[in-house]
């Protein structure tokens, strides 16, 4: 059966690639697949096995047909279709990186950035990283009460939006709690924060 | 030999421990069979449907330890429906009714209900050891029964099971009088545990050597546990997230340093990569390191950790280690025997993965390598040929290219020559898994050279029936053959049906075998169960012999058709 299939496809492959034959359909396993001869094929296999059929009876693997097979195989559609591949148990559990990307907005900056909060262990690390990222700004680092060289004279206060939608000052809660509740970050211009009576610093500095 | 009294022979047989050898001994003559069966304490049953509990009990009245395996291997990859079979209850029920003094039960890929666990816990006074691997069907209530009722429990080892976690109190069910624990592994449980109960349990278990925690056990509890159990040999860390400047971290460093016996480390189910330095003091003694559940650990932090592990014999990691990281392994781990590199994310090709380069580096640096499981982006024939030259001692070689029909990217050729080199060079090869673009040629090589091969896994390979025939004709020691998505049909299947009786099982899914072909096998070989698994209802309406079969699983058995098959399984 298989070698006949291969021959038939070669014949229809007039000058170019027989795309129809390599086309992968998004069918459920077991659903009949309509082939180029119009008939329904029972007990159909999944995407990859269809493409495997194509190279049968053909020793010249370097021929265009082999190439199109490889192209078809590269399509992301075919990957997601195949049940049980890659063959690793509990696959979903292993691969899930625990990562938490949040948007970072800086007042006055034309675009936002994203950071993965999971890669940091403390507020200090996060803020240092943000300073690197937005190198033309300086973040007011009153967590350590140290004065940072101000590049352009503008200081920023790190704030974040929590799960309840409220805007909070960064640094009041333990680090892990912050990571869990933070939805997005905003570096607010200090001048806007004046008059809010923020005289006391936050509870959690980098030494906690 | 017949002039020795039975007791002497029995004493001699005590020294024969391997299952294979004991089986051979029992075949010598009737009197040896009799002596052997009365003295046998440990039995291994690779396919729970090949024999019945009644016959087991009848033959081995002195049974103390039973190992059972249920579902076929491809069940691990969702190719077998959940309720296909492999129920342990009938076994426990039968054993409970008998006089067997069961002490140890080891199950793999079986369905274990809470009722089974409860019955188990109440039926055997001296029950000591429960090991469940890749099982499902039970909840923490079942574990509570084991904890509460098994007074002399030494081992509760749960590996990669699907457990319905009722977040209960199962740990608290260990009575105060239980002080015999040697091994406790609950890493696969997802729910909270009573941390106080855990600490008290560890405190009163002076013989505890192996402890593997789940994700819900935080760092400060870990520190307390280590302070109470510095004699641990095997540790599985649950959560490893903390602030490197905290008091808890300092305490942990001290606690870890006291644990001079730890040889095996795993877990890190949640990890803050900045804090691995606390682990360095014990790295130098490690022989087994499993970081395959820690995707947060990669890059320089991972490499630095590995550089401390000079005595490593087994390493399980994720592919985010990269080829460069494998280079570090090659330079550092000169005692390495087993390497497993798992995929972290197959759909992001090229993102964080390994290639043939990493494998070549490891093969050059780690000459004792004999067992490999390697998920990679690509592989070349040249690399495989080099690996075969560097490491002729492979017993297990499992290669999985994430794109299963990818050819050699340099030459665009199939990987026949590469795998051919592996089977030719590794004369002791027992297990092989293939992937990548492969023709019939690779099977010719396997049939010719893989004389010791016992298990072969094939997917998306071959051109014709010849491939399967080469293997069936050539591999005399073949026990398990599992095939998916290959163009093997009835003529290959029917060529030598007697061969299947020498094997444990054959799995074929999405191949070209027809219903008629399968029926033919079943007719010719009454000692085989030929199962057709088809959930699509096609079988209900169209029993045409020419119809292709979706999944076929056949296995030898002494007890005929099983009675517990679900409705979508047809036993021919």
From TrEMBL, chain A:
The record's keywords, sorted A to Z, are: Auxin signaling pathway, Nucleus, Repressor, Transcription, Transcription regulation
Q: According to its UniProt record, where is this protein located?
A: Nucleus
- Which InterPro entries does this one have? AUX/IAA_dom, AUX_IAA, PB1-like
Q: Which family does it belong to?
A: Belongs to the Aux/IAA family.
This protein's superkingdom?
Eukaryota
Q: What does this protein do?
A: Aux/IAA proteins are short-lived transcriptional factors that function as repressors of early auxin response genes at low auxin concentrations.
Task: Please name the PROSITE patterns in this protein's record.
Answer: PB1
Q: Name one GO cellular component term.
A: nucleus
Q: Does the keyword Secreted apply?
A: no
Q: Which PANTHER family match?
A: AUXIN-RESPONSIVE PROTEIN IAA15, AUXIN-RESPONSIVE PROTEIN IAA17
Assembly mode: Homodimers and heterodimers.
Q: Tell me what organism the protein belongs to.
A: Gossypium raimondii
Q: What is this protein called?
A: Auxin-responsive protein
Automatic annotation (TrEMBL), chain B:
Query: GO MF terms on file?
Result: auxin binding
Tell me the lineage of the source organism: Eukaryota, Viridiplantae, Streptophyta, Embryophyta, Tracheophyta
Q: Please state the protein's primary subcellular location.
A: nucleus
Cell compartment(s), UniProt: Nucleus
Identify one Gene Ontology CC term for this UniProt entry.
Answer: nucleus
Origin organism is Gossypium tomentosum
For biological process, the GO terms are: auxin-activated signaling pathway; pollen maturation; SCF-dependent proteasomal ubiquitin-dependent protein catabolic process
The molecule here is called F-box domain-containing protein
> Per the record's keyword annotation, is Transcription included, yes or no?
no
């Amino acid at each position: 059966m298989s070698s006949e299939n291969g021959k038939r496809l070669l014949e229809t492959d007039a000058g170019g690639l027989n795309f129809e034959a390599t086309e992968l359909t998004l069918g459920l396993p077991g659903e009949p697949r309509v082939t180029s001869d119009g008939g329904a094929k029972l007990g159909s296999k999944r995407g990859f096995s269809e493409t495997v059929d194509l190279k049968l009876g053909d020793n010249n693997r370097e021929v265009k047909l082999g190439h199109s097979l490889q192209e078809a195989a590269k399509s992301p559609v075919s990957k997601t279709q195949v049940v049980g591949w890659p063959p690793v148990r509990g696959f979903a559990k292993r691969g899930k990186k625990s990562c938490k990307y949040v948007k970072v907005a800086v007042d006055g900056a034309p675009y936002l950035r994203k950071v993965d909060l999971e890669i940091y262990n403390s507020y200090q690390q996060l803020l240092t990283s943000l300073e690197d990222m937005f190198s033309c700004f300086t973040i007011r680092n009153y967590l350590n009460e140290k004065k940072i060289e101000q590049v352009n004279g503008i200081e920023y206060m790190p704030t974040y939006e929590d799960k309840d939608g409220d805007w909070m000052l960064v640094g009041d809660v333990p680090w892990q709690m912050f990571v869990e509740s933070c939805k997005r970050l905003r570096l607010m211009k200090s001048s806007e924060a004046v008059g809010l009576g923020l005289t006391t610093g936050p509870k959690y500095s980098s030494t906690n | 030999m017949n002039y020795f009294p039975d007791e002497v022979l029995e004493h001699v047989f005590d020294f024969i421990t391997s299952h294979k050898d004991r089986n051979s001994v029992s075949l010598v003559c009737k009197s040896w069979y009799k002596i052997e069966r009365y003295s046998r304490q440990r039995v291994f049953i690779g396919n729970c449907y090949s024999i019945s509990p009644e016959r087991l009990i009848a033959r081995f009245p002195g049974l103390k330890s039973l190992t059972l395996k249920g579902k076929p291997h491809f069940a691990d990859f969702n190719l077998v429906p959940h309720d296909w079979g492999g129920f342990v209850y009938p076994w426990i029920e039968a054993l409970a009714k008998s006089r067997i003094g069961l002490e140890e039960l080891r199950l793999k890929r079986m369905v274990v209900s809470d009722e089974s666990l409860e019955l188990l816990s109440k039926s055997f006074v001296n029950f000591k050891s429960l090991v469940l691997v890749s099982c499902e069907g039970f909840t923490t209530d079942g574990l509570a029964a084991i904890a509460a009722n098994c007074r002399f429990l030494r081992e509760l080892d749960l590996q990669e099971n699907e457990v319905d976690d009722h977040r209960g109190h199962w740990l608290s069910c260990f009575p105060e009088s239980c002080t015999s624990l040697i091994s406790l592994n609950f890493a696969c449980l997802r729910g909270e545990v009573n941390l106080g109960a855990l600490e008290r349990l560890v405190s009163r278990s002076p013989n505890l050597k192996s402890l593997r925690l789940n994700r819900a056990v935080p760092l400060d509890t870990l520190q307390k546990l280590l302070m109470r159990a510095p004699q641990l040999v095997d540790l599985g860390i649950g959560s490893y997230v903390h602030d490197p400047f905290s008091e808890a971290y300092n305490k942990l460093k001290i606690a870890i340093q006291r644990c001079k016996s730890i040889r095996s480390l795993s877990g890190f189910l949640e990890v803050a990569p900045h804090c691995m330095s606390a682990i360095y003091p014990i790295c130098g003694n490690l022989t087994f390191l499993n970081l395959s559940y820690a995707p947060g650990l990669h890059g320089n932090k991972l490499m630095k950790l590995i550089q401390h592990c000079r005595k490593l014999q087994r390493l399980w990691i994720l592919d985010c280690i990269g080829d460069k990281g494998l280079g570090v392994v090659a330079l550092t781990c000169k005692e390495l025997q087993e390497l497993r590199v798992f995929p972290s994310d197959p759909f992001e090709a090229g993102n964080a993965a390994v290639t043939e380069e990493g494998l070549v580096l490891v093969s050059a640096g780690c000459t004792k390598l004999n067992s490999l499981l390697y998920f990679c982006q690509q592989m070349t024939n040249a690399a495989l040929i080099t690996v075969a030259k560097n490491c002729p001692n492979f017993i297990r070689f499992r290669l999985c290219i994430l794109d299963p029909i990818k050819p050699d990217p340099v030459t665009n050729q199939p990987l026949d020559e590469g795998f051919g080199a592996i089977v030719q060079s590794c004369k002791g090869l027992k297990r092989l898994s293939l992937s990548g673009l492969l023709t019939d040629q690779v099977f010719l090589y396997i049939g010719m050279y893989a004389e010791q091969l016992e298990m072969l896994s094939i997917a998306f390979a071959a051109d014709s029936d010849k491939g399967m025939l080469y293997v069936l004709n050539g591999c005399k020691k073949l026990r398990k053959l599992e095939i998916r998505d290959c163009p093997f049909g009835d003529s290959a299947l029917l060529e030598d049906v007697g061969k299947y009786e020498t094997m444990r099982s054959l799995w074929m899914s999405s191949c070209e075998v027809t219903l008629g072909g399968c029926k033919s096998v079943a007719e010719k070989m009454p000692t085989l169960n030929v199962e057709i698994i088809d959930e699509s209802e096609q079988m209900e309406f169209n029993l045409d012999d020419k119809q292709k079969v979706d999944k076929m699983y056949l296995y030898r058995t002494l007890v005929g058709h099983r009675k517990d098959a679900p409705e979508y399984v047809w036993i021919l």
